[in-house]
Design brief:
The complex is a heterodimer of chains A (242) and B (499).
Chain A: H1 12-17, H2 19-26, H3 47-63, H4 69-86, H5 102-111, H6 113-135, H7 156-161, H8 174-179, H9 207-213, H10 218-233
Chain B: H1 2-7, E1 40-47, H2 49-59, H3 63-68, E2 83-88, E3 94-99, E4 103-109, E5 123-130, E6 135-137, E7 142-144, E8 150-153, E9 161-166, E10 171-184, E11 208-224, E12 234-237, E13 243-247, E14 251-256, E15 264-268, E16 281-286, E17 293-298, E18 303-307, E19 319-321, H4 334-338, E20 342-345, E21 351-355, E22 359-364, E23 373-376, H5 385-390, E24 400-402, E25 408-412, E26 417-422, E27 428-432, E28 449-450, E29 460-461, E30 473-476, E31 482-487, E32 490-496
Parallel strand pairs in B: 28-29
Antiparallel strand pairs in B: 1-32, 2-3, 3-4, 4-5, 6-7, 8-9, 9-10, 10-11, 12-13, 13-14, 14-15, 16-17, 17-18, 18-19, 20-21, 21-22, 22-23, 24-25, 25-26, 26-27, 30-31, 31-32
Classes of the chains: A mainly alpha (242), B mainly beta (499).
Chain lengths: 242, 499
């Protein structure tokens, strides 16, 4: 298995619209200028491809019947870093204000890819935590959380699924809502990210329920396949002379 | 201390010099071991016994001979044979491996004989057993992998050997014992085992024990189940020999060996809301001497040392080890490569060693703000992180080990390379565990990776490295210079060169 030479540029039409941001993102994000290898580095890679790749990985990880938690957490943290850096000049709105009006919150959340990803991950992790309560037998001799730690808070299943609803009590970082409002995330707008009233089921539900909500329509599937094929096409053996 | 005294026997001699005492018998301790060039030889390459028995069915070869000789490549290797953990016992007499198929294979060191001094360091199959079977969790509709994640030996207290083996969910205590006698002369059974009619018995006799062919049997003595929601990544036997801990992604449980239906939860980092989860536990180990102290590492590159005397739930650490991030090396992958994949106390208990993706670090327990030593394992990969992220290699979890005297540390890399770092001389060496390059008893040639510019004849370029050949698991004999290196389904045993 050889290293790929780099990721192909994707979505060139988008990059033309935002050349400044692209330049900012590309400069230093993965190349350490001190290393000699940089001199022969592949052409500058737009971080959109890294975002695509990360989303794909996260999607794949979430689809596992029992995802590797470490892998998932590292992916999500990396994805958050990538997204945060794509809007480096955005000023984060101050957090202390109470949660916004329900409608506004729902709309901006829907438009936000990070929200969608967090929703997926959050739901899945909540499912894991809920199922834990059902499957543990015999009960281990456990301090049920140290005293002072809120035991459970909102009912687990409900908490996750209220994510896209009003007054969720900061399940997402509030400052992230504003970051993505001007980004074209139409590729993420599918019934994958449908609001609570439509696709997601209320109450505790494990794997199968979630899977139905995550089905993509043909266009989304085609796009994902393109990315996949595009990525895979790069894993070719190095040419002569390397 | 004995180690230091022994080193004076060799005063004046080169560190790479003979390890034998003047009479030619092997040195009892490896002290001040060097890891310089030319001092390691391949002792034997072992395959898991199923492959061996497959061969012997077809070729009718003695099993022991197969294990001691050098085999050609066979394509019988299946994924179930991939070795997932390697561990010497406390004397080094036994070497246990676990594989993806849930099997444990124990190798025993060849007994030394005066006539065959050169055969010291060879290991033969001692026992094989199926430790874990694939399971199905009906409640979650999930298959539980039978892969053995870790094996830890208990110190020997009687004639039998005990070890802990674990998969993702269940820890088992196995007893491995020898049987070389059997009772003969029963009154109620005849020689074939059939019951005799008591009416026909006219005399009584006392059964006697007669020698038989040595049989090694493994029996599961305890099963510690249903205590982990997440995947177990570590187990560690406490120095009190009465308790042990098991750690998963979010929790650490303390067990008593005698009690299987209860465990104490001593660490719980699960957030009240799972959406807030940003960090998981990656490894944990008890202090070798202080039975109240343990450490655990995280996916964010931190190590926490906890004292069980402080509180029942050790959520608040006693010490917190973290190195500040180097701003010039910052990238999107900073967190992933800082994730610690293994943490090991030194034998002395004074230091801990951690492995992250690119480095091995040694920490002094008395200094929390930075490691005292950092060793670059394969820094040439730093410029390739994006590709390694793409092919998921960046998530590989390498282990690291100390030698018996804590003077040398070893860890694996790609292309079947493994690296040793001498902490005293600051020298390091890269060696390769592969069939093509190793003949038995031949001296291992140090390898070198070329990072740019002209490639010398024996060097290998970064782009030619085979990232599917990774050495994740290695082990070092507790007192001698014998190492075990697992490469996919092969177990290599190397020893230092003996005159």
């Amino acid at each position: 298995m050889m290293l790929s030479k780099g990721l192909k540029r994707k979505r060139e039409e988008e990059e033309e619209e935002e050349p400044e941001k692209e330049a900012l993102a590309v400069d230093t994000w993965w190349l350490d200028p001190r290393l000699p290898a940089v001199a022969q580095a592949p052409p500058a890679v737009p971080s959109n491809s890294l975002l695509d790749l990360s989303v794909l990985k996260l999607h794949h990880s979430l689809r596992q019947s029992e995802p590797d938690l470490r892998h998932l957490v590292l992916l999500v943290n990396t994805l958050r870093r990538i997204q945060a850096s794509m809007e480096p000049e955005a000023t984060l709105p101050s957090v202390p204000s109470p949660p916004e009006a329900p409608g506004v919150a729902a709309d901006s959340l829907l438009a936000s890819s990070d929200a969608a990803l967090s929703a997926s991950m959050a739901s899945l992790l909540e499912d894991l935590s809920h199922i834990e309560g059902l499957s543990q037998a015999p009960q281990p001799l456990v301090d049920e959380g140290p005293p002072g730690r809120p035991s459970g808070g909102a009912p687990p299943g409900l908490g996750a699924l209220d994510l896209l609803g009003p007054a969720t009590g900061c399940l997402l970082d509030d400052e992230l809502e504003g970051l993505f409002e001007d980004i074209d995330t139409s590729m993420y707008d599918s019934e994958l990210w449908a609001p609570a009233s439509e696709g997601l089921k209320p109450g505790p539900e494990d794997g199968p329920g979630k899977e139905e909500g995550l089905e993509l329509d043909e266009a989304q599937l085609d796009y994902l396949l393109d990315v996949l094929v595009g990525t895979q096409a790069l894993e070719r053996p190095p040419g002569p002379g390397r | 201390m004995a180690l230091n005294q022994a080193s004076q026997l060799y005063s004046g001699s080169d560190r790479l010099g003979p390890w034998c005492s003047p009479t030619g018998s092997p040195a009892p301790l490896s002290c001040e071991t060097g890891c310089g060039e030319g001092s390691w030889i391949l002792v034997c390459r072992l395959l898991v016994p199923t492959q061996v028995s497959l061969l012997s069915m077809e070729e009718d070869i003695d099993t022991r001979k197969i294990n001691n000789s050098f085999l050609r490549d066979h394509s019988y290797a299946t994924e179930a044979d991939i070795i997932s953990t390697v561990e010497f016992n406390h004397t080094g007499e036994l070497l246990a491996t676990g594989d993806k198929g849930g099997r444990v294979v124990i190798f025993q060191r060849e007994q030394e004989s005066k006539n065959q001094v050169h055969r010291r360091g060879e290991y033969n199959v001692y026992s094989t057993f199926q430790s874990h079977e694939p399971e199905f969790d009906y409640l979650k509709s999930l298959e539980i992998e039978e892969k053995i994640n870790k094996i830890r030996w208990l110190p020997q207290q009687n004639a039998a050997y005990f070890l802990l083996s674990t998969n993702d969910k269940t820890v088992k205590l196995w007893k491995v014992s020898e049987r070389d006698k059997r009772p003969e002369g029963y009154n109620l059974k005849d020689e074939e085992g059939r019951l005799r009619d008591p009416a026909t018995i006219t005399t009584l006799r006392v059964p006697v024990l007669r020698p038989m062919d040595l049989m090694v049997e493994a029996t599961p003595r305890r099963v510690f189940a249903n205590a982990h929601t997440y995947h177990i990544n570590s187990i560690s036997v406490n120095s009190d020999y009465e308790t042990y801990m098991s750690a998963d992604d979010l929790r650490i449980n303390l067990w008593n060996f005698e009690i299987t239906n209860q465990s104490f939860n001593i660490v719980d980092i699960k957030p009240a809301n799972m959406e807030e989860l940003t960090e998981v536990i990656t490894a944990a180990e008890f202090h070798p001497h202080h039975c109240n102290t343990f450490v655990y590492s995280s996916s964010k590159g931190t190590i926490r040392l906890c004292d069980m005397r402080a509180s029942a739930l050790c959520d608040r650490h006693t010490k917190f080890f973290e190195e500040p991030e180097d701003p010039s090396n910052r990238s999107f992958f900073s967190e992933i490569i800082s994730s610690i994949s293994d943490v090991k106390f030194s034998h002395s208990g004074r230091y801990i060693m951690t492995r992250d993706y690119l480095t091995v670090k040694v920490w002094d327990l008395n200094m929390e703000n930075r490691p005292i030593e950092t060793y670059q394992v394969h820094d040439y990969l730093r410029s390739k992180l994006c590709s390694l992220y793409e092919n998921d290699c960046i998530f590989d979890k390498f282990e690291c080990v100390w030698n018996g005297s804590d003077s040398v540390i070893m860890t694996g890399s790609y292309n079947n390379f493994f690296r040793m770092f001498d902490r005293n001389t600051k020298r390091d060496v890269t060696l390769e565990a592969s069939r093509e390059n190793s003949k038995p008893r031949a001296i291992l040639k140090p390898r070198k990776v070329c990072v740019g510019g002209k490639r010398r004849k024996d060097e290998i370029s970064v782009d030619s490295l085979d990232f599917s050949k990774k050495i994740l698991h290695t082990a070092w004999h507790p007192s001698e210079n014998i190492i075990a290196v697992a490469a996919t389904n092969n177990l290599y045993i190397f020893q230092d060169k003996v005159n």
